[in-house]
């Protein structure tokens, strides 16, 4: 086994619940990205005509964090996303921490678990399914908690208004999760690198 493959294998075998320097950096970068995209109007939270008030892309860094950084990174990123959702809440449902924060903590955790379970079968399929699963976790738990807390009526017509938003968020999350995870692991495994530089006396000109 080559030294490069050995290093990659050793990195992959690190306890997923251990916070390494690399994982701290990933958590910091994705947390910062979450703050940025949720701070800019119309990007992290997109107004929609249903009881939620907004569709979101703010959960995507949390999904990516779970996939490439593991469960702890996913949990930290999810908490930051939930906190930003609470701080930017314009509707009563998201002014409640049990709706704005609690469900978001599980997004990265589910994405990590799905990716870890399916990765050995097919990397890209695993990333796509993990992205979709993370997004659905956000949608199902937020709507479920909204119903439990009395903000959303358990009415089929009302719940149907969430369907287009749920589908759109799921598809977008799956696409971004696969693209970013693939790019990250290509760079991490050093499959993309600069061409070798030859000494001056070895150049043909």
Provide an overview of this structure.
It comes from Ktedonospora formicarum. The chain crosses the membrane at residues 24-48, 60-87, 99-118, 125-152, 158-181. It holds the Pfam family ECF_trnsprt. By secondary structure, the chain is mostly helical. The protein has a single domain (20-191), classed as Arp2/3 complex 21 kDa subunit ARPC3 (Orthogonal Bundle). The chain is built from 9 helices and 2 strands. The chain has helices spanning 3-12, 21-39, 60-69, 71-87, 97-100, 105-118, 123-148, 156-160, 163-188, and strands at 45-47, 54-56. Strands 1-2 form a two-stranded antiparallel sheet. α2 (21-39) packs antiparallel against α3. The chain is globular, with a radius of gyration of 20 Å. The two termini are 37 Å apart.
- What count of structural domains? 1
Mean pLDDT: 86
Name of the CATH class: Mainly Alpha
SSE pattern: HHEEHHHHHHH
Strand order, largest beta sheet: 1-2
Per the principal axes of the C-alpha atoms, what is the gross shape?
Answer: globular
Strand % is: under 5%
The end-to-end distance, rounded to whole angstroms, is 37 Å
How many DSSP-defined strands?
Answer: 2
Main β-sheet: number of strands, strand sense, barrel status? 2 strands, antiparallel
Class by SSE composition: mainly alpha
List the uncertain runs.
1-10
The tally of helices reads: 9
CATH topology annotation: Arp2/3 complex 21 kDa subunit ARPC3
Q: From the coordinates shown, what is the CATH architecture?
A: Orthogonal Bundle
Protein name: Membrane protein
Keywords: Membrane, Transmembrane, Transmembrane helix
Organism: Ktedonospora formicarum
Pfam families: ECF_trnsprt (PF12822)
């Amino acid at each position: 086994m080559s030294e490069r493959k050995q290093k990659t294998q050793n990195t992959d075998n690190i306890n997923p619940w251990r916070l390494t320097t690399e994982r701290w950096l990933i958590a910091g970068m994705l947390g910062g990205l979450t703050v940025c995209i949720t701070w800019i109007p119309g990007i992290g939270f997109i107004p929609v005509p249903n009881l939620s008030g907004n569709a979101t892309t703010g959960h995507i860094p949390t999904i990516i964090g779970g996939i490439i950084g593991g469960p702890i990174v996913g949990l930290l990123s999810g908490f930051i996303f939930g906190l930003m959702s609470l701080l930017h809440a314009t509707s009563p449902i998201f002014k409640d921490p049990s709706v704005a924060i609690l469900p978001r903590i599980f997004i990265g955790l589910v994405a990590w678990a799905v990716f870890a379970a399916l990765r050995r079968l097919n990397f890209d399929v695993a990333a796509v399914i993990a992205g979709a699963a993370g997004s659905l976790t956000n949608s199902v738990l937020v709507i479920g908690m909204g119903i439990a807390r009395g903000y959303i009526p358990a009415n089929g017509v009302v719940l149907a208004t969430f369907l287009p938003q749920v589908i759109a968020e799921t598809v977008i999350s799956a696409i971004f999760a696969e693209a970013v995870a693939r790019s990250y692991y290509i760079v991490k495994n050093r499959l993309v690198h600069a061409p070798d530089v030859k000494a001056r006396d070895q150049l043909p000109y």
